[in-house]
Protein 1
Amino acid sequence: MVEYQHSPVTVSGKRAVVIGGTSGIGQAIALGFAEEGADVIATSRSEEKVDETATEIEARGVETARITCDVTEPDSLEAVRETAVEELGGIDVVVASQGAISRASVQDITDEEWDFVTDVALDGVRRVTQAFAPAMDEGGSIINISSLTAQLSMANLPAYTAAKGGVEAFTRAASKELAPDIRVNAIAPGFVITPQNADTYAEGTEKRERIDERTPIGRVAEREEIVGPAIFLASDAASFVTGEVVTVDGGFSDSAF
Ligand SMILES: NC(=O)c1ccc[n+]([C@@H]2O[C@H](COP(=O)([O-])OP(=O)(O)OC[C@H]3O[C@@H](n4cnc5c(N)ncnc54)[C@H](O)[C@@H]3O)[C@@H](O)[C@H]2O)c1
């Protein structure tokens, strides 16, 4: 019998890599992990944003490294893996939070638009798992950021919706192959305010009012509200949780009215 001693809901002492970690939800997760005592490398394609986020991580007294990556290029993910192993001494947690979106109808979407979205949002998730899993230690945790749209369809987002459905199916598939050493889960956020969509969801807009009204918690989420579920999935408290999708949507998706 295992005796309960203290809450294992912590990432303190873990070594994490956050892909798409210099903006939006990924950045909130990277800074939240650092705040809780994890060493964190937050990466994206922009050298300037990598540097800014690394400076914020360092200010929290933990280790980091500065490296860019593009999830459409497997070599760049491998370079991040090597940097994490060298600079942090290993990898316990990987978060795939990179994003790409294209608004077009099913009828009008072009091959280029479809491929752009799925290359980043779905193939990118696969490449992240392929690149990092071989270097992850026992007790490792991969967290893929999906979306409510994987379960609830929306007009004019066919590639994004299909990619996120694929992310959830891939998460389940990978969780079977990587067990028992590495757990693979997804978080499906609902409507979250990030710098990119702050105008779309601005208070007073019709869209914002409709979302607030339909959401049992009565509002859209702040990006920091995705951090707690990520800490749980990354932590040893989730040691028996794998292949799951944690929906973080204020009750939106199962609210009848
Ligand atoms: N904001 C929301 O309401 C919401 C809701 C559900 C799901 N999501 C998902 O959350 C994740 C983060 O989205 P966000 O809203 O924080 O957006 P964001 O644009 O702020 O963050 C996306 C990050 O991905 C990086 N990125 C884009 N293409 C990349 C590439 N080829 N290689 C490496 N990095 C790349 C960007 O530089 C950025 O750092 C995405 O997967 C998105 O689909 C967001």
Protein 2
Amino acid sequence: MDLDFNRKLSIAPMLDCTDRHERYFLRLLSKHILLYSEMVVASGLLHCDNPEMFLGHEPLEQPAVLQLGGSNPTDLARASKLVEAAGFNEVNLNCGCPSDRVQNGNFGACLMKEKHTVADCFKAMQDAVSIPVSIKCRIGVDELDSWEFFTDFVQTTKDAGCRIFIVHARKAWLKGLSPKENREVPPLHYDFVHRLKAEMPDLNISINGGIKTLDQVEEQLQDLDGVMVGREAYENPWFLRDADERIFGDKTPSPYASRKAVLEAYLPYVEKQTAEGCPATILVKHLYGLFTGLPGARKYRQLLSNGAPRAAEYGGAVALIQKAMDLVQED
Ligand SMILES: Cc1cc2nc3c(=O)[nH]c(=O)nc-3n(C[C@H](O)[C@H](O)[C@H](O)COP(=O)(O)O)c2cc1C
């Protein structure tokens, strides 16, 4: 599998969003995008009773990447082996998340201050698996926001063998900003990412942060290898409808000509997951944004969110989704 092809457009790891159900749903919109998991803490994966909870997925989701959080090379190596055995196509190391919880575990964005630890982690992971290992990072942390700091971090991990970087093009403040603010307040510096590619053309570089349209994706791809989109894919997934043709050059028409057709195609999966005991709340929450901008979208969303906790009253999750869909006008 040529993941560098799929990497042209990837969907960002997002906690509480990019679980297996969201990935399955997004795959219906594009055959080629690269789908990332939520971050899974390596030690949590190793010590939990049911690793399937983190690793379980449908082959249809692939190509898919599982993102690990951690800073212990041995744990990360062991966790990477599980990720590979579960069928994921790549494993990613999180060096970009600034939340307190993650900092307390000494991983995520604060690892950018410990480039040698990251290099050791990367090497242990890559030595343990034959799938690629990638790094997702910021352009800096706290007052360490110079070009020299950023490029030194990348060079050190590159020397350890890493060639795939996804760069969220803003720095993170480790104290004083919430994770949400850390996705909005520090300004975006796309220039850092473009300069990185220009100076290290042998690396595979994806840019991330604030990208919302396929026009923007195409523009970034003129100089870079890939674009990663987060919030827009979650809040307005329909923007992906032409991605296969425009970004990947796949002229095969999508089997789903409308948003409702995509949703219909998701229903057998909902039925299967419901039979396996998955609550409706988890299965429908990823569908809220599908009809963004259309008449009736608000009512659709309200019915899904209010109805899901008592889906049985509607005849189950599938019936609830069908009822909600009927509230939307789509030409
Ligand atoms: C709800 C939410 C959860 C996130 N969780 C993660 C995560 O688990 N790992 C990670 O590397 N980044 C995480 N991020 C950051 C995104 O991957 C991405 O870097 C960020 O949202 C910027 O991209 P965007 O402007 O396209 O949304 C999260 C973002 C959001 C909105």
